[in-house]
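Quick one: examine this chain and its backbone structure tokens and tell me how the chain folds. Here goes:
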Amino acid sequence: MNAIPKQAPEIFGILSRGQFISANGSRGKLYDVISFEDNFNQLRELFAHTGYSLEHGHNYYYFSQSDEPNLSIEKKIEQFAYYIDVMDFFSSMDQKPTAGTRYRVTQIAEECFSNERLKQKLLALSRREKMVDKVAEIAGDLALSGFFEQEDEDTYKVMDAIHYLEQVITLITIDDDGEQKNS
């Protein structure tokens, strides 16, 4: 049996905060460590003892938990409602949120000034006064979660973990007619 990677505590620290480790970010070396040979299985077994399950998606890793308290699940649902609105906002822009896309906060604010629909979506997402501050707040939220990564004061890069949000959103189905169906 191979030794557990020395980066295991760092990996645990990041993932246990609900963040992601993406291949295309500054944590790419940790992504490589997890991906290397038997490391994924060893780390998965190690972290299972802490109540977390190491999961992987398209070029990213994250933790899931099978036994979560209802309060935690409710908070996640609220957070996802916010993420749905954020993804709707970014998907309405000229440049769509795909892995590797770079956004400048000032450029997004300018696009919102010239597009009333985007402006209204942005107003619903943030209570900040200035457009630039609203965009910076949303981009910062996405960076804290690991979906974006801040490259400099004004620029954010979309991480591979954005696929996670896309997958969860596509799993949501809502009946249009509003009527309950009897089986």
